[in-house]
User: Fold Transcriptional regulator from Actinacidiphila polyblastidii.
Amino acid sequence: MPATPNGSLACTDADRPRRLAAQLADMIPGAATVRVSLTDPTRTWPDPHAVAKDASGKPVELSRKTAKVAARWILRVWPEADWTGSHTFDLATVTLTRSDLVAAGRGR
Assistant:
């Protein structure tokens, strides 16, 4: 991370999720959420994977490269998360929630 002239980091840890949300919104127009897992359904081995959805819950088409980049970025911002299951990153609220909690309506 680049430092400012006084030597402090240009982006604090608290700002990283908000910056990530802005970058993903630019990279994936129309996306409201991005679900990330280490299980790409087209692979038999662990591989970072992302699925984006719009505000109405409809899938936003991603290229394989974009899906992998988005997943890696999210994984890097939350390395402490339990990545044995999938997580959903809400771009509007800038929150990461386990996907099983979101599906059950308890994640928000």
The two ends are 31 Å apart (CA to CA). The first helix runs from residue 16 to 27. The mean pLDDT is 86.
